[in-house]
């Protein structure tokens, strides 16, 4: 709007100095401003003042609201809370608004309005509705930025601005400079640039790698061609050698098989006879197992019954002890009841006597009353009616004359009567208290007697407890020790059982293994200290991971028997033959040719983990270490096959026999054999040795546990003793509790009661003496009053007394009165006696002991009922326990009978075993007769299998006319060089026969052999030809071993590398172009962001020192604003430091509150000077300033700032706001809800005239 359209009350002349500033505000029901209120016009320097709580901050919220601030920054949760009265739930309207009258740069008035309507906001500019985006854009055109808050400083935020950290200060400059608008695009392009450059670098590296790989592939192809030629020559020689060996082996097999057929028929007959004997033995063995199973079942049932007995017996003992304790309680209750009844009888008798005495007294009282009445009638004066009337008249006349005396006399006599009654009451009470005291003393004496007796009972019981505790402790120690040992042994047994299960050591041993075990046991028994045992049992690998490697190298000697000399070996062999045991191999220590250990091999570092095989074998018996060394030699063990290959065909011509952990063996001769299923099965024999030891340990533990279990049976006795001990302890506890109650409560309470009674008795005596003293004093006064009254009566009754013949009127009255007084005294005596008797009767009837006999009788009945219940429970448990013990005894008898049966069938089984053993010996003799032929065939077949297997492993192309090399199992079989015989187990034999059966299908084509070799029949000639060819093969292998094996696919690799090179070159070019494009875009956005940021920051940094000096009013003050990163300042912090006048440099957080405020204001004014809003609102910036700093800040604002900006300041200090051009006063108006009133005053005229501010007129803005 133009100025002409502005309301009259706010019109003003717009000059150059008044342009681009806030002119006035219009508030309608906003917060504490009820109704419509216009605040303004605002001067260049306007101060808002008023008491706390009047609504000054609400005015600042109104300014923020109209400029577009969010509701939560105006101390409300929602917009409707801004309506007046809403905070107390009574809004005065459904909407509110704030309008800002702003004079633009052209001198026009612009009205900006923001309304709260229906919980939302409406915006308008010059009464035209706009969107929030248009409204915010209009504010930014006025250089008012809501996010940056460049137009206001909230209360308490001045010091916070100074204390911002460098990063926060950078963020503030980014908001003000609007360089933050480039931040997202900057980060995005930077990330893309880094990614593109990384891709370009990676492609460059790939390009270089491909070039090197291409050169390497070309060289590899040349090496591969040369190596392939050498390899083919070696392969041809190896194939010829293998064919020669196979031809010789097959010739010998065929010859031996023909000789074996004749001996097989005889063996078949003997085997059938042995089978029949073994079947009979098996049936009897089943019968033994059946009986043993029944025995185990009975033993299990016995154990369960023992467990039930062990459970029931402590229960019975506990009930039995409780029953005994209940019986003692009943016995004690009977005694207490008898005592209570005796006391009740005494009390009943005493009560009856008192009641009889009461009746007699009542009767005597009636007789006395009757007698006194008769005497009164006989002593009456027979006066006439006239005389009586005259007596009454004269009595009244005398009373009138002596009225005062008589009234005092009557009063004294009445008081005397009351005191006599008090004396009578107190005497009765005294008598009752003495009786009660006597009874309490009796009760106290009785409790003291019981207290002295209970100590003896406690001492006696505690002595019994000590004896019982000692017995229980000894028994418990013994059982605990047994239990501890048993737990330990059971844990060991459990561990051994688990280990046996893991090792599968509980499998039944075959007959062959039993025979071999029996053979070595007998040898060690017959030749003690000479035969040491099998090598397998005398040493073990140091770790399980060495099992396969050790088994591979020791395989042919694992079952060999170690003895001291060759003489012992020959004698042992003779003994085995005599006993018809199978053939065994012996290692006599005295004649073994042992290869010395090569110490240099122990220091080998390459390959990793290499060790002498001898060093990984543990041998507890030093005597047999020579045999282990003989079997191992200087063989090496290494982690993997590559390491073993390196040792066998290694550097500088050194070759060593080496084996990998997986069982792969590399011989220096070039022969390689791998680990297989049979090797793993053989390696398990180390576990079998451990299993045998574990089984022995398990048997010993079971025997020990059985012995200890008998000791643990005493646990039941301990339970019984502990139950009895608990009963004794409970008895002591109850007696000590009674003793404690009597000593702590009962007896002290009785003593206290006696003391109170005695004090009451003493008090009653004192009261009686006091009353008697008053009565005696009053009697003297009564006598004097009676004498004065008598003088008056004598004068009045003188004539009357003469007529009736008495000396004076008192003679007549005293005679009658004396009679009545005597009568009254006698009757009072009877009444007192009757009251005493009634009190004693009432006390005895009310005594707590009256019903005690009944109560004790009820207790006795309850205890008897409880005792009967316990008795029934005890009888029931006892009966059950006896039944269990009878069942247990019966089962134990059955166990004894069954054990006899088991022994009988085991004896019969022994006979069957003898028969079966005899048949087995006959079969053994037949087997020995053909053993030579079988062994020869087995060796030849094994040799053929070995040759085929080695050919397959070494990839030797053996020519075949039938079959396939896939039928050859490449896994390692047991080595057998003919030294002794040591057949494998049954499963191993089956597997070997299956392999041989498959290999029979293989028919070898020998047409490639020389004709002269096919005609040879002499084995020596054949061996010489083979040795010559083997030597040529070794020389070829050595030559080939010196040549490093090339990559045989080098040609394919070279083609692949060329293809990859083309792809990588294309990728590199694409990545390079992309990186260049992204970097160009990034550099542009980086430059734009830097220019915008520096365009704001540089002027502020240059101006701040000048402003700080002006604010401090001292040229020595210094302020410095500098970025941590000069190239890209918006990425890191901005440092702000000030040196106060006359002080050394200190960090900002060490400055005082006032110094921080001045520093913050310097920064605010410097920033505002660079990016000024049309007005600057400051809320209580003087709060932390002292008077000196207030003066400096105010002077700066007046001298410098006011010329460049409009300032609106909320202030509480007069030293500050008295410098303003105008004041807006906010004051509270009393109401249910806070209501703010507004006063405005223009101070300019007073500054010009120099008038006192206190005389300024004020106007109230409605």
- Termini Cα gap: 23 Å
In helices, the fraction of residues equals 55-70%
Mean pLDDT: 78
Query: Oligomeric status of the shown chains?
Result: single chain
Q: Spans of 5+ residues with little confidence (pLDDT < 50)?
A: 1-15, 504-509, 972-991, 1252-1262
Report on the architecture of this protein.
This protein has 1262 residues and is an alpha+beta fold. The chain has a domain at 502-707. The chain contains 26 helices and 27 strands. The strands form seven sheets. The protein has a seven-stranded mixed β-sheet, sandwiched between helices. Strands 2-1-4-5-6-7 form a six-stranded antiparallel β-sheet. It has a five-stranded mixed β-sheet with strand order 13-15-16-17-18, with helices on both faces. Helix 5 packs across helix 22 (1050-1112). It is flat.
């Amino acid at each position: 709007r133009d100025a002409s359209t502005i309301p009259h009350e706010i019109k003003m002349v717009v000059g150059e100095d008044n342009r681009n500033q806030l002119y006035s505000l219009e508030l309608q029901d906003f917060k504490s401003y009820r109704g419509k209120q216009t605040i303004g016009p605002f001067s260049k320097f306007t101060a808002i003042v008023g008491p706390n709580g009047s609504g000054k901050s609400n005015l600042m919220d109104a300014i923020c609201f109209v400029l577009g601030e969010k509701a939560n920054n105006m101390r409300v949760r929602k917009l409707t809370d801004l309506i007046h009265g809403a905070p107390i739930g009574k809004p005065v309207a459904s909407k509110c608004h704030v309008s800002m009258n702003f004079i633009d740069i052209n001198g026009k008035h612009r009205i900006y309005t923001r309304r709260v309507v229906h919980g939302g906001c409406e915006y308008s500019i010059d009464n035209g509705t706009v969107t929030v985006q248009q409204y915010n854009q209009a504010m930014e055109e006025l250089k008012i930025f809501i996010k940056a808050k460049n137009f206001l400083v909230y209360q308490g935020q001045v010091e916070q601005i100074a204390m911002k950290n460098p990063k926060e200060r950078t963020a503030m400059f980014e908001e003000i400079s609007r360089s933050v608008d480039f931040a997202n695009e900057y980060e995005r392009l930077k990330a893309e640039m880094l990614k593109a450059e990384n891709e370009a670098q990676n492609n460059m590296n790939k390009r270089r790698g491909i070039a090197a790989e291409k050169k390497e592939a070309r060289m590899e192809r040349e090496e591969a061609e040369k190596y392939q030629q050498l390899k083919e020559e070696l392969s041809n020689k190896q194939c010829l050698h293998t064919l020669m060996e196979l031809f010789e082996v097959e010739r010998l097999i065929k010859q031996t098989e023909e000789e074996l057929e004749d001996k097989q028929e005889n063996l078949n007959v003997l085997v059938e006879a042995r089978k029949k004997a073994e079947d009979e033995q098996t049936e009897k063995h089943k019968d033994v197992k059946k009986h043993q199973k029944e025995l185990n079942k009975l033993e299990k049932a016995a154990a369960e019954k023992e467990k039930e007995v062990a459970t029931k017996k402590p229960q019975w003992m506990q009930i039995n002890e409780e029953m005994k304790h209940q019986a003692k309680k009943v016995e004690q209750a009977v005694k207490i009841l008898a005592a209570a009844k005796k006391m009740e009888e005494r009390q009943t008798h005493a009560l009856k006597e008192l009641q009889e005495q009461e009746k007699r007294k009542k009767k005597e009282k009636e007789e006395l009353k009757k007698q006194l009445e008769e005497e009164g009638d006989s002593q009456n004066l027979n006066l006439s009616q006239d005389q009586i009337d005259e007596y009454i008249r004269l009595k009244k006349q005398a009373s009138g004359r002596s009225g005062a005396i008589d009234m005092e006399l009557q009063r004294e006599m009445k008081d005397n009567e009351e005191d006599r009654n008090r004396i009578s009451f107190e005497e009765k009470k005294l008598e009752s208290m003495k009786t009660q005291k006597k009874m309490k003393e009796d009760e106290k004496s009785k409790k003291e007697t019981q207290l002295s007796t209970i100590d003896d009972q406690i001492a006696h019981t505690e002595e019994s407890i000590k004896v019982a505790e000692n017995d229980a402790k000894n028994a418990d120690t013994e059982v605990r020790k047994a239990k501890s040992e048993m737990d330990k042994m059971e844990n060991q047994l459990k561990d051994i059982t688990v280990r046996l299960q893991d090792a599968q050591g509980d499998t039944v041993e075959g007959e062959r293994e039993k025979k071999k075990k029996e053979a070595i046991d007998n040898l060690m028994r017959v030749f003690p200290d000479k035969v040491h045992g099998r090598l397998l049992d005398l040493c073990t690998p140091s770790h399980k991971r060495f099992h396969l490697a050790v088994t591979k190298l020791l395989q042919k000697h694992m079952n060999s028997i170690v003895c001291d000399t060759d003489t012992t070996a020959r004698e042992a062999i003779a003994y085995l033959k005599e006993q018809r045991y199978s053939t065994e191999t012996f290692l006599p220590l005295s004649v073994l040719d042992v290869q010395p250990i090569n110490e240099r091999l122990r220091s080998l570092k390459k390959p990793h983990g290499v060790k002498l095989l001898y060093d990984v074998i543990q041998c507890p018996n030093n005597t047999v270490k020579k045999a282990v060394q003989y079997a191992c030699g200087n063989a090496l063990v290494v982690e993997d096959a590559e390491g073993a290959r390196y040792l066998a065909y290694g550097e500088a011509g050194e070759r060593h026999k080496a084996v990998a952990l997986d069982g792969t063996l590399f011989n220096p001769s070039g022969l390689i054999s791998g680990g297989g299923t049979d090797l793993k099965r053989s390696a398990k024999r180390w576990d079998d040795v451990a299993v045998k030891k574990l089984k022995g340990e398990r048997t010993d533990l079971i025997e020990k546990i059985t012995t200890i279990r008998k000791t643990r049976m005493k646990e039941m006795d301990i339970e019984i003793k502990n139950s009895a001990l608990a009963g004794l302890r409970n008895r002591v506890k109850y007696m000590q509790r009674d003793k404690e109650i009597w000593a702590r409560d009962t007896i002290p309470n009785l003593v206290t009661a006696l003391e109170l009674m005695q004090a009451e008795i003493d008090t009653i005596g004192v009261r009686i003496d006091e009353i008697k003293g008053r009565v005696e004093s009053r009697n003297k006064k009564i006598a004097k009053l009676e004498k004065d009254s008598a003088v008056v009566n004598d004068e009045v009754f003188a004539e009357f007394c003469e007529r009736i013949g008495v000396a004076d009127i008192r003679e007549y009255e005293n005679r009658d009165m004396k009679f009545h007084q005597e009568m009254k005294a006698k009757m009072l005596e009877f009444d007192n006696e009757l009251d005493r008797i009634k009190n004693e009767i009432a006390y005895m009837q009310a005594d707590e002991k009256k019903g005690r006999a009944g109560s004790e009788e009820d207790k006795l009945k309850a205890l008897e009922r409880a005792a009967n219940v316990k008795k029934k429970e005890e009888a029931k448990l006892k009966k059950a326990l006896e039944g269990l013990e009878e069942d247990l005894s019966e089962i134990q008898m059955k166990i004894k009978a069954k054990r006899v049966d088991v022994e009988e069938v085991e004896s019969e089984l022994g006979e069957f075993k003898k028969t079966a053993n005899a048949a087995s010996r006959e079969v053994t003799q037949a087997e020995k007769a053909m053993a030579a032929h079988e062994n020869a065939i087995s060796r030849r077949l094994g040799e053929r299998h070995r040759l085929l297997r080695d050919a397959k492993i070494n990839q030797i192309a053996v020519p075949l006319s039938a079959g396939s090399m896939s039928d050859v199992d490449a896994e390692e079989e047991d080595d057998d060089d003919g030294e002794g015989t040591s057949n494998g187990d049954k499963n191993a034999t089956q597997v070997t026969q299956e392999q041989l059966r498959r290999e029979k299908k293989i028919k070898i084509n020998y047409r490639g052999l020389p004709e002269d070799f096919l005609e040879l029949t002499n084995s020596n000639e054949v061996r010489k030809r083979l040795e010559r060819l083997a030597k040529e093969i070794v020389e070829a292998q050595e030559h080939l071993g010196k040549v490093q094996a090339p990559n045989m696919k080098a040609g394919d690799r070279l083609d692949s590398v060329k293809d990859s090179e083309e792809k990588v070159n294309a990728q590199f070019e694409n990545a390079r172009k992309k990186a260049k494009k992204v970097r160009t875009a990034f550099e542009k956005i980086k430059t734009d962001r830097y220019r915008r940021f520096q365009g704001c920051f540089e002027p502020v940094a240059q101006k701040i020192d000048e402003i700080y000096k002006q604010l401090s009013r001292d040229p020595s003050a210094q302020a410095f604003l500098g970025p941590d990163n000069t190239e890209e300042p918006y990425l890191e912090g901005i440092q702000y430091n000030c040196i106060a006048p006359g002080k050394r440099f200190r960090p900002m957080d060490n400055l005082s509150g006032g110094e921080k405020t001045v520093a913050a204001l310097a920064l605010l004014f410097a920033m505002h000077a660079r990016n000024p809003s049309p007005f600057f609102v400051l809320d209580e910036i003087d709060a932390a300033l002292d008077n000196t700093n207030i003066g400096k800040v105010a002077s700066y604002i007046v001298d410098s700032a006011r010329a460049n900006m409009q300032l609106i300041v909320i202030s509480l200090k007069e030293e500050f706001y008295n410098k303003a051009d105008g004041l807006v006063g906010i004051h509270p108006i009393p109401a249910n809800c806070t209501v703010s009133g507004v006063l405005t005053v223009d101070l300019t005229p007073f500054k010009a005239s120099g008038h006192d501010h206190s005389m300024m007129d004020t106007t109230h803005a409605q």
